[in-house]
# Entry
Amino acid sequence: MKALQTLIKLSRTKVEDKQKEIAVFREKIANIEGRIVELEQAIVDEEAASKGSLELQGYFGPFHQRALKQIEGYQKDIARLEQELAPHLDELAELFAEQKRVEILYERRKEEARKLMLKKEQQELDEIATQRHIRKTR
# Structure
């Protein structure tokens, strides 16, 4: 039983470590998504500002193109990170399944030990009852 408890702790540690790795990927993706939102808002703001001035309209076109290229680059970064993340998610699923198998095995062994203890207690009680009966009938 002690070995199974150790295996459970080890499995939980592996799952937690993998979850931390995945959290790093998700944080990176969230940061990039935040930059995309900021750029999209900057495009909207600059477009609104340039509508009032012919001079600013001349600057908006190149800004808009540059911002779209940055957004495209960010989207490629997100796609790359998601590809890198996928095997980690698969591994997490495997680690979690392994953890559950060990926990189920532990619970089964615990239940078996409990049933064995109850059976021994019942045998002892039966033996005591048999001895009493023998004493009374003599």
